[in-house]
Amino acid sequence: MANVSVYNMEGAEVGKMELSDAVFGVEIKENLVHQAVVLQLANNRQGTQKAKTRSEVRGGGRKPWRQKGTGHARQGSTRAPQWTGGGVVFAPTPRDYSFKMNRKEKQAALKSVLTSKVQENKFLVLDELKFDAPKTKEMKKVIDALKVEKALVIVGKDSDNAVLSARNLEGVATASAETINVYDLLKYNTVIATKSSVAAIEEVYA
C-alpha cells in the first residue's frame, strides 16, 4: 500500500495514511484515460452546428445565362457553392457526438489517474477541512499553506462552507467522491482530499 503524508489546514504534517492499492495502486491504462477524456468532451458538445447546402439556400432556381455563346463558364444556378450567397459544400448538420464507455472501463480510467497523482506526489491528504462560515480568505490560506496551484479539492459530506469558500478562487475547484471525473483530475495539477473523502473514494471505487 502507498503511504502519503497527512497535513492540517496550516500545512504542517500531522501523520501518515495508507491508501488502498485497489484504487490508488492499479496499473495505469493510458488508452482508457484518453478514451474517458474524449468521452467527456464529446458528451459536452451541443452538436447544434448547421449550415445550408445548395438545395436549402433560397433562390437560384433560374439558370443565370444560356448554356453556350456568352463566353462565361456554364452555370446552372446562382446558389452553387462557388457563388456569393451560395450553399456550403458538405455543410455541417446537427448531430449527437456522444458515445458510451463500459462502467468498468470508466472506473479503470479514474483509478489510473488517481494512481498517477499519488506516484507523482500530487495527491495531498488533509486531516480535515472545516470552516465556521464561508470565507474565501480562509480557503486561500489553506491553499497557500500547502504550496499548490490549480487544485481540485475533494470534500466529504457536510462541507458546504468549504465548497462556498473555494467558489471564487481562481484555479481551484471542488468535487465530492461521487462526482470526480478523469477530465477534472487531469485538468488540475494537484488533488487535495480530506481523510473522510479518501475513505469515501475507496468505498465507492474499490
From TrEMBL:
GO terms for cellular component: ribonucleoprotein complex; ribosome. SUPFAM superfamilies: Ribosomal protein L4. Keywords: Ribonucleoprotein, Ribosomal protein, RNA-binding, rRNA-binding. It comes from the Bacteria. One of its GO terms (molecular function) is rRNA binding. Residues 45-87 are annotated as: Disordered. GO terms for biological process: translation. Coiled coil: none annotated. Residues 60-71 have a biased composition (Basic residues). One of the primary rRNA binding proteins, this protein initially binds near the 5'-end of the 23S rRNA. It is important during the early stages of 50S assembly. It makes multiple contacts with different domains of the 23S rRNA in the assembled 50S subunit and ribosome. Forms part of the polypeptide exit tunnel. Part of the 50S ribosomal subunit. Belongs to the universal ribosomal protein uL4 family. This is Large ribosomal subunit protein uL4. It comes from Eubacterium cellulosolvens (strain ATCC 43171 / JCM 9499 / 6).
